[in-house]
Amino acid sequence: MGRLQGIFGVILILGVAYLFSNNKKKINYRLVLSGIGLQVIIALLVFKVPPVAWFFQKLGHGMQKIEHFAREGASFVYGGIVTTQPDGTVGNYIGGGFVFAFNVTATIILVCALVAIFYHFGIMQRVVAVIARAMNFIMRVSGAEALSNVASAFVGQVEAQVMIRPYLQGMTKSELLASMSGSLACIAGGILVVYANMGAAAGLDLAPKLITASLMAAPGALVIAKIVFPETEESQTLGKVKLEVKSNYTNVIDAVSHGASDGFKIAMNVIAMLIGFIAVIAVLDSVLTWVGHLFNPNFNLTLNWVFGKFFYPVAWAMGVPQGDVSSVATLLGQKLSINEFVAFQHLTDKSVPVISEKGLLIVSIAICGFANFSSVGMQIGGIGELAPGRRTDLAKLGLKALLCGTLASYLSATIAGILI
After folding, report:
1. SS3 assignment, position 361
2. H or E element that contains 66
């Protein structure tokens, strides 16, 4: 029954994309089928082929170690702070206590520093280029949108556009939407590591699921974007993938310093968003509860209740087991309307509990992406700085990109749910 639900979910997701298409006659069905096929192959390799599954498990364990390495740096800075230790006693932060702001900040800073080092030596660019060439060959998309979507699986949503900066001004609107959609559907490496470690702290093995989600999101975003906005113009990079490998850093020390600085800015932005959004949610919940009590003193109306009802059909169609549908619906609503950090926090601290392994797999992939309203504003501002002449196009495509990024994540999650 779950697989039938999932098949219905795939049809529903593609149907919604088709409904919003601006030129249904120009949809490239070869691209759509090859993209979905690529998603299926990625999921099959990860979940059904033991050597590949073993590799991803090891990669996930390696990601968990990054948090321990980051703690070495954080311990020097926060070593005198008293925290609750894992065994419940009170002791020095160095002894293993967890403080969300400290641990998350340190992890993001370390990952950004490592990415900067890889970028300086050209490793990041070459990895992205190789994968992009493969996706370009299979799906027959343009080089620019292939590079952008693959890069989004490794770096942030604006940083991915930096890699295709020379092409931004001349990209078609369809390419621009595909690029924006990929950045919203994927998740940056630093944030992915944070979510994996949040799951590990709660006894949840999320790392393989999250890596798979980010890899599946790249072709998935292209599939949805090319249904919503089919290509009708001539691309400057059709059939070719060329990436500038030159480093902007003077040396390794310069790379580490810039990477750490960028990581700190991202971490502070995450902390500020969490404080602001969670506080606003508390205000809204208070108002909603008051409204609910006007009609029934026992009715505690909250934002989670609203999300649970509104996204219930979506969660069911994705193949989520019946006992988890309401919780998954709530998390889907939190991710889209607020941000994915809040959704992952509630998933890992089990304030919104997901019991079944299948439900956990589906929701982990579905909320693993930047597709929310605040990210759209960040993209328009960030990409607009790189290509000022495209700011109007970016603003017009913003909500379409949000739809495409969201549907792409849902498509990946649904396919993964069908295959397990």
Report:
1. helix
2. helix 50-78
